[in-house]
Amino acid sequence: MHLDARQEDNDSLIEGDICIIGAGAAGISMALEWVDTAYKVILLEGGGFDYDDKVQELYRGVTTGQNYYPLKSTCLHYFGGTTGHWGGLCSMFDPIAFQKRAWIDQSGWPFNEQELLEYYKRAHSVLALGEFEFEVDYWLKQNPSLFSMPLDQNVFWSKIWRYGVPTSMKFGTVFRDRITNAGNVHLYTYANVVDIRTSENVSSISEVTVKNHSGKTQKVKAKYFVLACSAIQNARLLLASNKQSSRGLGNHNDFVGRYFMENIEIKAAELWLKEPNRLQLYMNNPPNFRAELAITPAKQAEYKILNGMLSFVPLEKARKIPPFIKTWTSDDPREDRKRQGKIYEDADGTRISRFFESDAHESFEVTLRLEQAPNPLSRVTLSNEKDELGVPRAHLHWQFTDLERRSLRKIYEMLGEQVGIKGIGRIKLQDNLQDENDNSMPSSTSGGWHHMGTTRMNNDPKKGVVNSNCQVHGIHNLYVAGSSCYPNGGAVNPTFTLIALSLRLSDHLKRKLKEEARFI
Ligand SMILES: Cc1cc2nc3c(=O)[nH]c(=O)nc-3n(C[C@H](O)[C@H](O)[C@H](O)COP(=O)(O)OP(=O)(O)OC[C@H]3O[C@@H](n4cnc5c(N)ncnc54)[C@H](O)[C@@H]3O)c2cc1C
After folding, report:
1. Same domain, 198 and 294
2. Which DSSP letter does residue 54 get?
3. Domain range holding 136?
Protein backbone atom coordinates (compact mmCIF):
# COMPACT_ATOMS: atom_id res chain seq x y z
CA MET A 1 0.00 0.00 0.00
CA HIS A 2 1.31 3.43 -0.89
CA LEU A 3 0.67 6.61 1.07
CA ASP A 4 2.13 10.05 0.43
CA ALA A 5 3.15 11.63 3.74
CA ARG A 6 2.41 15.09 2.29
CA GLN A 7 -1.30 14.13 2.08
CA GLU A 8 -1.52 12.64 5.58
CA ASP A 9 -2.86 14.64 8.54
CA ASN A 10 -0.37 16.90 10.24
CA ASP A 11 0.76 15.63 13.66
CA SER A 12 -0.82 12.21 13.07
CA LEU A 13 0.49 8.96 14.51
CA ILE A 14 1.44 5.96 12.35
CA GLU A 15 1.89 2.58 14.08
CA GLY A 16 3.24 -0.79 12.99
CA ASP A 17 5.26 -3.84 14.03
CA ILE A 18 8.42 -3.00 12.09
CA CYS A 19 9.46 0.40 10.83
CA ILE A 20 12.09 0.39 8.07
CA ILE A 21 13.63 3.81 7.42
CA GLY A 22 14.86 4.15 3.81
CA ALA A 23 13.72 2.29 0.69
CA GLY A 24 16.95 1.58 -1.19
CA ALA A 25 18.78 -1.71 -1.73
CA ALA A 26 18.79 -2.58 1.99
CA GLY A 27 15.31 -1.30 2.92
CA ILE A 28 13.49 -2.79 -0.07
CA SER A 29 15.30 -6.16 0.27
CA MET A 30 14.11 -6.28 3.87
CA ALA A 31 10.56 -5.13 3.15
CA LEU A 32 10.13 -7.81 0.44
CA GLU A 33 10.77 -10.46 3.09
CA TRP A 34 7.70 -9.29 5.01
CA VAL A 35 5.20 -9.08 2.15
CA ASP A 36 2.00 -11.00 3.02
CA THR A 37 3.13 -11.86 6.53
CA ALA A 38 0.96 -11.20 9.58
CA TYR A 39 3.05 -8.16 10.50
CA LYS A 40 2.37 -4.53 9.69
CA VAL A 41 5.49 -3.01 8.15
CA ILE A 42 5.95 0.75 7.86
CA LEU A 43 8.46 1.62 5.12
CA LEU A 44 9.46 5.28 5.33
CA GLU A 45 11.05 6.77 2.22
CA GLY A 46 12.30 10.35 2.19
CA GLY A 47 11.71 10.89 -1.54
CA GLY A 48 8.95 10.07 -4.00
CA PHE A 49 9.02 7.57 -6.88
CA ASP A 50 11.15 9.87 -9.05
CA TYR A 51 14.06 12.24 -8.70
CA ASP A 52 13.07 15.45 -6.92
CA ASP A 53 15.78 18.07 -6.54
CA LYS A 54 14.31 19.53 -3.35
CA VAL A 55 14.65 16.13 -1.65
CA GLN A 56 18.04 15.40 -3.22
CA GLU A 57 19.24 18.74 -1.85
CA LEU A 58 18.87 17.26 1.67
CA TYR A 59 21.95 15.13 0.84
CA ARG A 60 24.19 18.15 0.21
CA GLY A 61 27.16 18.11 2.57
CA VAL A 62 30.77 19.06 3.09
CA THR A 63 33.81 16.97 2.14
CA THR A 64 37.41 17.35 3.30
CA GLY A 65 40.55 15.20 3.13
CA GLN A 66 41.09 12.95 0.10
CA ASN A 67 39.28 14.43 -2.90
CA TYR A 68 35.71 13.03 -3.09
CA TYR A 69 32.48 13.43 -5.08
CA PRO A 70 29.95 16.10 -4.05
CA LEU A 71 27.83 14.46 -1.33
CA LYS A 72 24.63 15.63 -3.00
CA SER A 73 25.32 13.43 -6.01
CA THR A 74 26.94 10.28 -4.59
CA CYS A 75 23.63 8.67 -3.58
CA LEU A 76 20.04 8.94 -4.77
CA HIS A 77 17.30 10.15 -2.47
CA TYR A 78 14.08 8.54 -3.71
CA PHE A 79 12.34 5.15 -3.79
CA GLY A 80 14.89 2.54 -4.91
CA GLY A 81 17.75 4.60 -3.52
CA THR A 82 21.13 4.53 -5.21
CA THR A 83 20.27 1.40 -7.21
CA GLY A 84 18.84 3.98 -9.64
CA HIS A 85 22.48 4.58 -10.61
CA TRP A 86 24.45 1.51 -9.60
CA GLY A 87 26.41 -0.66 -12.02
CA GLY A 88 25.03 -3.93 -10.60
CA LEU A 89 28.44 -5.64 -10.26
CA CYS A 90 28.29 -8.36 -7.62
CA SER A 91 30.74 -10.74 -6.01
CA MET A 92 31.14 -12.33 -2.59
CA PHE A 93 33.56 -11.04 0.01
CA ASP A 94 36.67 -13.23 0.21
CA PRO A 95 36.97 -15.26 3.44
CA ILE A 96 39.97 -13.10 4.39
CA ALA A 97 37.71 -10.03 4.60
CA PHE A 98 36.05 -11.57 7.66
CA GLN A 99 39.28 -12.55 9.40
CA LYS A 100 41.31 -10.68 11.97
CA ARG A 101 44.52 -9.79 10.12
CA ALA A 102 47.39 -8.91 12.43
CA TRP A 103 48.76 -6.33 9.97
CA ILE A 104 45.45 -4.42 9.65
CA ASP A 105 44.32 -2.58 12.76
CA GLN A 106 40.65 -3.15 13.73
CA SER A 107 40.18 -5.84 11.06
CA GLY A 108 37.81 -8.79 11.33
CA TRP A 109 34.08 -9.46 11.50
CA PRO A 110 32.39 -11.22 14.45
CA PHE A 111 31.59 -14.17 12.12
CA ASN A 112 33.10 -15.87 9.09
CA GLU A 113 31.98 -16.13 5.47
CA GLN A 114 30.01 -19.36 6.13
CA GLU A 115 27.50 -17.37 8.17
CA LEU A 116 26.55 -15.37 5.07
CA LEU A 117 26.55 -18.17 2.47
CA GLU A 118 22.84 -18.99 2.74
CA TYR A 119 22.01 -15.27 2.57
CA TYR A 120 24.28 -14.68 -0.43
CA LYS A 121 22.23 -17.35 -2.22
CA ARG A 122 19.00 -15.58 -1.33
CA ALA A 123 20.44 -12.16 -2.31
CA HIS A 124 21.54 -13.65 -5.64
CA SER A 125 17.97 -14.67 -6.29
CA VAL A 126 16.61 -11.21 -5.28
CA LEU A 127 18.99 -9.78 -7.89
CA ALA A 128 17.93 -12.40 -10.50
CA LEU A 129 21.56 -13.14 -11.36
CA GLY A 130 20.95 -16.70 -12.63
CA GLU A 131 22.69 -19.80 -11.29
CA PHE A 132 24.61 -19.23 -8.05
CA GLU A 133 28.11 -19.99 -9.32
CA PHE A 134 31.30 -18.14 -8.42
CA GLU A 135 33.89 -20.83 -9.21
CA VAL A 136 36.09 -19.85 -12.14
CA ASP A 137 36.54 -23.53 -13.15
CA TYR A 138 32.79 -23.83 -13.68
CA TRP A 139 32.76 -20.93 -16.15
CA LEU A 140 35.94 -22.09 -17.88
CA LYS A 141 34.39 -25.54 -18.42
CA GLN A 142 31.30 -23.98 -19.98
CA ASN A 143 33.45 -21.77 -22.22
CA PRO A 144 36.49 -23.74 -23.42
CA SER A 145 37.85 -20.75 -25.38
CA LEU A 146 38.37 -18.76 -22.17
CA PHE A 147 41.44 -19.04 -19.95
CA SER A 148 42.84 -17.49 -16.78
CA MET A 149 45.99 -15.41 -17.14
CA PRO A 150 48.86 -17.92 -16.84
CA LEU A 151 50.30 -16.49 -13.61
CA ASP A 152 51.48 -18.31 -10.48
CA GLN A 153 48.31 -19.38 -8.66
CA ASN A 154 50.06 -18.92 -5.35
CA VAL A 155 50.09 -15.21 -6.13
CA PHE A 156 47.05 -14.37 -8.26
CA TRP A 157 43.74 -16.09 -8.90
CA SER A 158 40.73 -15.22 -11.06
CA LYS A 159 37.68 -14.13 -9.09
CA ILE A 160 34.24 -14.29 -10.68
CA TRP A 161 31.81 -11.39 -10.75
CA ARG A 162 28.17 -11.37 -11.86
CA TYR A 163 26.01 -8.49 -13.07
CA GLY A 164 22.43 -7.85 -14.08
CA VAL A 165 21.30 -8.39 -17.66
CA PRO A 166 20.19 -6.62 -19.75
CA THR A 167 20.88 -3.85 -17.23
CA SER A 168 21.60 -3.61 -13.53
CA MET A 169 18.48 -3.95 -11.40
CA LYS A 170 16.86 -0.66 -10.39
CA PHE A 171 15.03 -1.61 -7.20
CA GLY A 172 12.65 1.35 -7.48
CA THR A 173 11.33 0.10 -10.82
CA VAL A 174 11.50 -3.67 -10.38
CA PHE A 175 9.98 -3.90 -6.89
CA ARG A 176 7.58 -0.96 -6.87
CA ASP A 177 4.46 -3.03 -7.60
CA ARG A 178 5.35 -5.83 -5.17
CA ILE A 179 5.77 -3.30 -2.39
CA THR A 180 2.79 -1.09 -3.17
CA ASN A 181 0.44 -4.06 -3.78
CA ALA A 182 1.26 -5.64 -0.44
CA GLY A 183 -1.57 -4.99 2.00
CA ASN A 184 0.65 -5.30 5.06
CA VAL A 185 3.51 -3.09 3.84
CA HIS A 186 2.65 0.59 4.23
CA LEU A 187 5.08 2.56 2.10
CA TYR A 188 5.10 6.26 2.94
CA THR A 189 6.89 8.42 0.36
CA TYR A 190 8.04 11.97 1.17
CA ALA A 191 8.52 10.67 4.72
CA ASN A 192 11.93 11.94 5.79
CA VAL A 193 12.94 10.82 9.23
CA VAL A 194 14.48 13.84 10.96
CA ASP A 195 14.70 12.66 14.57
CA ILE A 196 14.69 9.44 16.58
CA ARG A 197 13.35 9.60 20.15
CA THR A 198 14.13 7.08 22.88
CA SER A 199 12.77 6.02 26.25
CA GLU A 200 14.06 8.05 29.18
CA ASN A 201 17.05 5.78 29.84
CA VAL A 202 17.85 5.60 26.10
CA SER A 203 17.42 1.80 26.04
CA SER A 204 14.68 1.68 23.41
CA ILE A 205 13.27 3.78 20.58
CA SER A 206 9.85 5.21 21.34
CA GLU A 207 9.12 7.00 18.06
CA VAL A 208 10.61 8.66 15.01
CA THR A 209 9.60 12.02 13.56
CA VAL A 210 8.84 12.34 9.86
CA LYS A 211 8.88 15.61 7.91
CA ASN A 212 8.70 16.89 4.35
CA HIS A 213 8.72 20.17 2.49
CA SER A 214 4.92 20.60 2.81
CA GLY A 215 5.54 21.53 6.44
CA LYS A 216 3.63 18.52 7.79
CA THR A 217 5.03 16.19 10.38
CA GLN A 218 4.04 12.72 11.62
CA LYS A 219 5.24 10.41 14.38
CA VAL A 220 5.85 6.71 13.85
CA LYS A 221 5.79 4.06 16.59
CA ALA A 222 6.81 0.42 16.11
CA LYS A 223 8.17 -2.55 18.03
CA TYR A 224 11.38 -2.53 16.00
CA PHE A 225 13.07 0.15 13.92
CA VAL A 226 15.57 -0.54 11.13
CA LEU A 227 17.76 2.25 9.84
CA ALA A 228 18.44 1.66 6.11
CA CYS A 229 19.31 5.12 4.78
CA SER A 230 22.84 4.30 3.40
CA ALA A 231 26.13 4.59 5.28
CA ILE A 232 26.56 8.37 5.36
CA GLN A 233 22.90 9.07 6.19
CA ASN A 234 22.68 6.31 8.83
CA ALA A 235 25.53 7.95 10.73
CA ARG A 236 24.10 11.43 10.19
CA LEU A 237 20.69 10.49 11.57
CA LEU A 238 22.14 8.74 14.64
CA LEU A 239 24.41 11.71 15.36
CA ALA A 240 21.64 14.25 14.78
CA SER A 241 19.23 12.41 17.12
CA ASN A 242 20.99 13.93 20.11
CA LYS A 243 18.18 15.44 22.19
CA GLN A 244 18.31 12.68 24.83
CA SER A 245 21.86 11.49 24.37
CA SER A 246 24.09 14.46 23.65
CA ARG A 247 26.60 12.54 21.49
CA GLY A 248 23.85 10.96 19.40
CA LEU A 249 22.35 7.48 19.51
CA GLY A 250 24.61 4.43 19.87
CA ASN A 251 27.55 6.76 20.25
CA HIS A 252 28.69 6.39 23.88
CA ASN A 253 32.10 5.32 22.65
CA ASP A 254 32.38 7.83 19.81
CA PHE A 255 32.25 5.28 16.98
CA VAL A 256 29.22 6.51 15.02
CA GLY A 257 30.46 8.00 11.75
CA ARG A 258 34.05 6.81 12.23
CA TYR A 259 35.78 4.19 10.02
CA PHE A 260 34.17 5.46 6.81
CA MET A 261 35.51 3.23 4.02
CA GLU A 262 35.30 3.15 0.24
CA ASN A 263 36.56 0.81 -2.46
CA ILE A 264 39.47 2.84 -3.77
CA GLU A 265 39.73 2.83 -7.58
CA ILE A 266 43.16 3.56 -9.05
CA LYS A 267 44.41 3.53 -12.64
CA ALA A 268 48.18 3.62 -12.30
CA ALA A 269 49.67 1.00 -14.62
CA GLU A 270 49.63 -0.41 -18.14
CA LEU A 271 50.01 -4.03 -19.20
CA TRP A 272 51.95 -4.52 -22.45
CA LEU A 273 51.65 -8.07 -23.81
CA LYS A 274 54.18 -9.85 -26.04
CA GLU A 275 51.35 -11.32 -28.09
CA PRO A 276 48.06 -9.43 -28.58
CA ASN A 277 45.18 -11.00 -26.64
CA ARG A 278 41.55 -10.28 -25.78
CA LEU A 279 41.89 -11.30 -22.11
CA GLN A 280 38.31 -12.37 -22.67
CA LEU A 281 37.77 -13.98 -19.23
CA TYR A 282 38.29 -10.49 -17.76
CA MET A 283 35.76 -8.84 -20.09
CA ASN A 284 31.95 -9.20 -20.00
CA ASN A 285 30.89 -12.69 -21.06
CA PRO A 286 27.45 -14.17 -21.69
CA PRO A 287 25.28 -14.80 -19.82
CA ASN A 288 26.61 -12.39 -17.15
CA PHE A 289 30.04 -13.07 -15.76
CA ARG A 290 33.57 -11.79 -15.86
CA ALA A 291 36.67 -12.21 -13.75
CA GLU A 292 39.11 -9.92 -11.98
CA LEU A 293 42.62 -10.82 -10.93
CA ALA A 294 42.66 -11.28 -7.16
CA ILE A 295 45.59 -11.67 -4.74
CA THR A 296 45.91 -14.87 -2.71
CA PRO A 297 45.44 -14.56 1.07
CA ALA A 298 48.92 -16.05 1.55
CA LYS A 299 50.55 -13.20 -0.39
CA GLN A 300 48.46 -10.58 1.39
CA ALA A 301 49.74 -12.02 4.68
CA GLU A 302 53.34 -12.37 3.46
CA TYR A 303 53.55 -8.75 2.28
CA LYS A 304 51.22 -7.42 5.01
CA ILE A 305 49.06 -5.60 2.51
CA LEU A 306 45.40 -4.81 1.93
CA ASN A 307 43.30 -6.83 -0.48
CA GLY A 308 42.94 -5.62 -4.06
CA MET A 309 41.55 -6.70 -7.42
CA LEU A 310 42.80 -5.89 -10.89
CA SER A 311 40.77 -5.36 -14.04
CA PHE A 312 41.90 -4.66 -17.60
CA VAL A 313 40.61 -2.27 -20.24
CA PRO A 314 42.19 -2.05 -23.72
CA LEU A 315 44.46 0.98 -23.58
CA GLU A 316 43.04 2.67 -26.65
CA LYS A 317 39.61 2.60 -24.99
CA ALA A 318 40.91 3.40 -21.51
CA ARG A 319 42.59 6.58 -22.77
CA LYS A 320 39.14 7.96 -23.59
CA ILE A 321 37.84 7.17 -20.09
CA PRO A 322 38.94 9.68 -17.42
CA PRO A 323 38.97 8.57 -13.78
CA PHE A 324 35.58 8.83 -12.06
CA ILE A 325 36.87 11.52 -9.67
CA LYS A 326 37.42 13.85 -12.64
CA THR A 327 33.98 13.39 -14.20
CA TRP A 328 31.53 12.90 -11.30
CA THR A 329 31.83 16.49 -10.18
CA SER A 330 28.46 18.19 -10.33
CA ASP A 331 25.75 18.46 -7.68
CA ASP A 332 23.25 16.83 -9.98
CA PRO A 333 23.61 13.02 -9.97
CA ARG A 334 21.59 12.76 -13.19
CA GLU A 335 24.07 15.02 -15.00
CA ASP A 336 27.01 13.04 -13.62
CA ARG A 337 25.44 9.76 -14.75
CA LYS A 338 24.73 11.18 -18.20
CA ARG A 339 28.30 12.46 -18.54
CA GLN A 340 29.61 9.05 -17.50
CA GLY A 341 27.40 7.38 -20.11
CA LYS A 342 28.66 9.70 -22.85
CA ILE A 343 32.26 8.80 -22.07
CA TYR A 344 31.46 5.21 -22.97
CA GLU A 345 30.15 6.25 -26.36
CA ASP A 346 32.34 6.15 -29.44
CA ALA A 347 32.57 9.26 -31.57
CA ASP A 348 29.74 7.93 -33.74
CA GLY A 349 27.49 7.61 -30.68
CA THR A 350 27.57 3.79 -30.51
CA ARG A 351 27.66 2.63 -26.94
CA ILE A 352 30.88 0.92 -25.92
CA SER A 353 31.54 -0.93 -22.72
CA ARG A 354 34.89 -0.89 -21.06
CA PHE A 355 34.48 -4.61 -20.50
CA PHE A 356 33.18 -5.74 -23.87
CA GLU A 357 35.85 -6.82 -26.29
CA SER A 358 35.96 -8.50 -29.66
CA ASP A 359 39.52 -7.71 -30.77
CA ALA A 360 42.92 -8.72 -29.46
CA HIS A 361 45.07 -5.90 -28.04
CA GLU A 362 48.67 -5.66 -27.00
CA SER A 363 48.16 -3.03 -24.29
CA PHE A 364 45.67 -2.66 -21.42
CA GLU A 365 45.12 -0.19 -18.63
CA VAL A 366 45.21 -1.99 -15.27
CA THR A 367 42.70 -0.65 -12.73
CA LEU A 368 43.11 -1.56 -9.09
CA ARG A 369 40.16 -1.69 -6.73
CA LEU A 370 41.80 -1.49 -3.33
CA GLU A 371 40.38 -2.29 0.08
CA GLN A 372 40.51 0.68 2.48
CA ALA A 373 41.97 0.01 5.93
CA PRO A 374 39.60 0.76 8.83
CA ASN A 375 40.63 4.22 10.03
CA PRO A 376 38.91 6.13 12.85
CA LEU A 377 40.02 9.44 11.30
CA SER A 378 38.10 8.72 8.09
CA ARG A 379 34.69 9.78 9.28
CA VAL A 380 31.26 11.37 8.98
CA THR A 381 30.39 14.16 11.42
CA LEU A 382 27.69 16.84 11.49
CA SER A 383 28.38 20.17 9.85
CA ASN A 384 27.21 23.48 11.31
CA GLU A 385 24.75 24.05 8.50
CA LYS A 386 21.26 22.55 8.62
CA ASP A 387 19.16 21.28 5.70
CA GLU A 388 15.70 22.65 4.90
CA LEU A 389 14.08 20.17 7.30
CA GLY A 390 16.32 21.29 10.16
CA VAL A 391 18.80 18.36 10.24
CA PRO A 392 22.54 19.21 10.38
CA ARG A 393 24.20 18.32 7.09
CA ALA A 394 26.84 15.60 6.81
CA HIS A 395 30.55 16.36 6.78
CA LEU A 396 32.67 13.58 5.25
CA HIS A 397 36.39 13.54 5.93
CA TRP A 398 37.91 10.78 3.74
CA GLN A 399 41.36 9.74 4.91
CA PHE A 400 43.75 6.85 4.27
CA THR A 401 46.45 5.23 6.40
CA ASP A 402 49.98 4.48 5.14
CA LEU A 403 48.85 0.97 4.28
CA GLU A 404 46.86 1.99 1.21
CA ARG A 405 49.84 3.60 -0.55
CA ARG A 406 52.16 0.73 0.32
CA SER A 407 49.62 -1.91 -0.76
CA LEU A 408 48.84 -0.33 -4.09
CA ARG A 409 52.50 -0.11 -5.02
CA LYS A 410 53.14 -3.70 -3.91
CA ILE A 411 50.16 -5.11 -5.82
CA TYR A 412 51.26 -3.49 -9.09
CA GLU A 413 54.84 -4.67 -8.42
CA MET A 414 53.61 -8.24 -7.86
CA LEU A 415 51.78 -8.13 -11.19
CA GLY A 416 54.88 -6.77 -12.93
CA GLU A 417 57.01 -9.53 -11.42
CA GLN A 418 54.59 -12.28 -12.44
CA VAL A 419 54.06 -10.98 -15.96
CA GLY A 420 57.87 -10.82 -16.35
CA ILE A 421 58.60 -14.28 -14.87
CA LYS A 422 55.95 -15.92 -17.06
CA GLY A 423 57.23 -14.09 -20.15
CA ILE A 424 53.80 -12.66 -20.96
CA GLY A 425 54.90 -9.06 -21.30
CA ARG A 426 55.66 -6.17 -18.96
CA ILE A 427 53.96 -3.67 -16.65
CA LYS A 428 54.53 0.05 -16.99
CA LEU A 429 53.99 1.84 -13.68
CA GLN A 430 52.97 5.48 -13.39
CA ASP A 431 56.00 7.65 -12.54
CA ASN A 432 55.03 8.58 -8.99
CA LEU A 433 54.57 4.92 -8.06
CA GLN A 434 58.13 4.14 -9.04
CA ASP A 435 59.47 6.48 -6.38
CA GLU A 436 59.44 4.65 -3.04
CA ASN A 437 59.72 7.96 -1.17
CA ASP A 438 56.67 9.44 -2.84
CA ASN A 439 53.71 8.83 -0.53
CA SER A 440 51.08 10.63 -2.56
CA MET A 441 48.14 8.76 -4.04
CA PRO A 442 47.84 8.79 -7.85
CA SER A 443 45.73 11.62 -9.27
CA SER A 444 43.25 9.03 -10.60
CA THR A 445 42.35 7.94 -7.04
CA SER A 446 38.56 7.68 -6.96
CA GLY A 447 35.89 5.96 -4.90
CA GLY A 448 33.39 3.43 -6.21
CA TRP A 449 30.48 5.34 -4.55
CA HIS A 450 30.66 2.48 -2.04
CA HIS A 451 30.11 3.84 1.46
CA MET A 452 30.87 1.56 4.37
CA GLY A 453 31.83 1.32 8.03
CA THR A 454 30.12 4.24 9.77
CA THR A 455 28.16 2.04 12.24
CA ARG A 456 30.75 -0.71 12.48
CA MET A 457 29.88 -4.15 13.79
CA ASN A 458 31.58 -5.55 16.88
CA ASN A 459 30.12 -7.64 19.68
CA ASP A 460 32.02 -5.51 22.19
CA PRO A 461 30.13 -2.22 22.71
CA LYS A 462 33.48 -0.57 23.40
CA LYS A 463 34.63 -1.39 19.86
CA GLY A 464 31.59 -0.94 17.65
CA VAL A 465 28.13 0.53 17.15
CA VAL A 466 26.11 -2.59 16.29
CA ASN A 467 26.43 -6.21 17.41
CA SER A 468 26.59 -9.20 15.07
CA ASN A 469 22.77 -9.06 14.66
CA CYS A 470 23.06 -5.43 13.51
CA GLN A 471 21.38 -4.21 16.72
CA VAL A 472 22.64 -0.87 18.03
CA HIS A 473 24.41 -1.59 21.32
CA GLY A 474 22.30 -0.60 24.32
CA ILE A 475 19.11 0.13 22.33
CA HIS A 476 17.14 -3.11 22.16
CA ASN A 477 14.77 -2.23 19.29
CA LEU A 478 17.05 -0.25 16.94
CA TYR A 479 18.82 -2.06 14.09
CA VAL A 480 20.90 -0.95 11.13
CA ALA A 481 20.71 -2.48 7.64
CA GLY A 482 23.43 -1.77 5.13
CA SER A 483 27.15 -1.49 4.53
CA SER A 484 27.55 1.01 7.38
CA CYS A 485 27.74 -2.14 9.55
CA TYR A 486 30.88 -3.48 7.82
CA PRO A 487 33.96 -3.58 10.07
CA ASN A 488 36.02 -4.28 6.90
CA GLY A 489 35.07 -3.38 3.38
CA GLY A 490 37.23 -5.83 1.44
CA ALA A 491 38.03 -5.19 -2.21
CA VAL A 492 34.59 -6.17 -3.46
CA ASN A 493 31.64 -3.89 -4.23
CA PRO A 494 29.34 -3.80 -1.19
CA THR A 495 25.75 -4.16 -2.33
CA PHE A 496 25.47 -7.93 -2.77
CA THR A 497 26.80 -8.40 0.77
CA LEU A 498 24.56 -5.69 2.25
CA ILE A 499 21.50 -7.34 0.73
CA ALA A 500 22.63 -10.68 2.22
CA LEU A 501 23.11 -9.01 5.59
CA SER A 502 19.67 -7.36 5.38
CA LEU A 503 18.01 -10.73 4.69
CA ARG A 504 19.83 -12.16 7.69
CA LEU A 505 18.58 -9.26 9.82
CA SER A 506 15.08 -9.89 8.55
CA ASP A 507 15.24 -13.54 9.71
CA HIS A 508 16.52 -12.37 13.09
CA LEU A 509 13.60 -9.96 13.55
CA LYS A 510 11.08 -12.58 12.47
CA ARG A 511 12.47 -14.95 15.11
CA LYS A 512 12.27 -12.21 17.74
CA LEU A 513 8.66 -11.37 16.93
CA LYS A 514 7.70 -15.06 17.01
CA GLU A 515 9.42 -15.55 20.35
CA GLU A 516 7.65 -12.53 21.79
CA ALA A 517 4.28 -13.83 20.56
CA ARG A 518 4.87 -17.09 22.47
CA PHE A 519 5.08 -15.17 25.74
CA ILE A 520 1.94 -13.11 25.26
C1 LIG B 1 27.35 5.31 -9.99
C2 LIG B 1 27.24 4.21 -8.97
C3 LIG B 1 27.61 2.91 -9.32
C4 LIG B 1 27.53 1.88 -8.38
N5 LIG B 1 27.84 0.61 -8.77
C6 LIG B 1 27.78 -0.40 -7.89
C7 LIG B 1 28.08 -1.72 -8.30
O8 LIG B 1 28.36 -2.00 -9.46
N9 LIG B 1 28.06 -2.70 -7.34
C10 LIG B 1 27.76 -2.44 -6.04
O11 LIG B 1 27.80 -3.36 -5.23
N12 LIG B 1 27.42 -1.19 -5.65
C13 LIG B 1 27.42 -0.17 -6.53
N14 LIG B 1 27.07 1.10 -6.13
C15 LIG B 1 26.69 1.32 -4.72
C16 LIG B 1 25.22 0.93 -4.43
O17 LIG B 1 24.36 1.74 -5.17
C18 LIG B 1 24.98 1.11 -2.93
O19 LIG B 1 25.90 0.27 -2.23
C20 LIG B 1 23.57 0.69 -2.49
O21 LIG B 1 22.58 1.35 -3.23
C22 LIG B 1 23.41 1.04 -1.01
O23 LIG B 1 22.17 0.56 -0.57
P24 LIG B 1 21.44 1.24 0.67
O25 LIG B 1 20.07 0.68 0.74
O26 LIG B 1 22.31 1.15 1.87
O27 LIG B 1 21.38 2.80 0.30
P28 LIG B 1 20.54 3.49 -0.86
O29 LIG B 1 20.35 2.56 -1.99
O30 LIG B 1 21.18 4.78 -1.13
O31 LIG B 1 19.11 3.70 -0.20
C32 LIG B 1 18.90 4.55 0.91
C33 LIG B 1 17.43 4.98 0.89
O34 LIG B 1 17.14 5.68 2.10
C35 LIG B 1 16.39 6.85 1.79
N36 LIG B 1 16.65 7.81 2.87
C37 LIG B 1 17.83 8.43 3.16
N38 LIG B 1 17.71 9.21 4.25
C39 LIG B 1 16.43 9.07 4.68
C40 LIG B 1 15.69 9.61 5.78
N41 LIG B 1 16.23 10.44 6.67
N42 LIG B 1 14.39 9.25 5.91
C43 LIG B 1 13.79 8.38 5.04
N44 LIG B 1 14.45 7.85 3.97
C45 LIG B 1 15.75 8.19 3.80
C46 LIG B 1 16.91 7.29 0.43
O47 LIG B 1 16.01 8.13 -0.26
C48 LIG B 1 17.12 5.94 -0.26
O49 LIG B 1 15.95 5.50 -0.91
C50 LIG B 1 27.11 2.16 -7.04
C51 LIG B 1 26.73 3.46 -6.70
C52 LIG B 1 26.79 4.48 -7.66
C53 LIG B 1 26.38 5.87 -7.27
Report:
1. no
2. H
3. 131-163+264-370+401-440
Ligand 1 pocket check: which of 50, 60, 82, 127 to mutate, most ligand atoms within 8 Å of Cβ?
Answer: 82
Asked if residue 446 is part of any domain, the answer here is no
Residue 445 in any domain: the answer is no
Tell how far the Cα of 23 is from the centroid of ligand 1, in angstroms: 9
In this structure, the answer to whether residues 408 and 516 fall within a common structural domain is: no
**What is the atom index within ligand 1 of the atom nearest the CA of 451?**
19
Q: Could you tell me if residue 209 is inside a domain?
A: yes
Residues 246-284: tens digit of each pLDDT? 999 999 999 999 999 999 999 999 999 999 999 999 999
Long-range contacts of 457-460, Cβ-Cβ distance < 8 Å, separation of 24 or more:
457/109, 457/110, 457/485, 457/486, 457/487, 458/110, 458/487, 459/110
Cβ of residue 494 lying under 6 Å from some atom of ligand 1: yes
- Please give the tally of structural domains in the chain: 2
Residue 166 predicted with pLDDT over 90: no
Answer whether 441 contacts ligand 1 (Cβ < 6 A).
Answer: no
Position 347 scores a pLDDT of 45
| Closest atom of ligand 1 to CA, residue 88 | 8
Whether residues 138 and 220 fall in one domain: no
Ligand 1 contacts CB of residue 429 (under 6 A)? no
The CA distances from residue 26 to 40, 269, 280, 429, 509, in Å, are: 18, 35, 33, 39, 15
Going by C-alpha positions, the residue among 474, 500, 398, 501 that lies closest to residue 61 is: 398
Q: Do 285 and 257 fall within a single domain? A: no
CA dist 212 and 8 (Å) reads 11
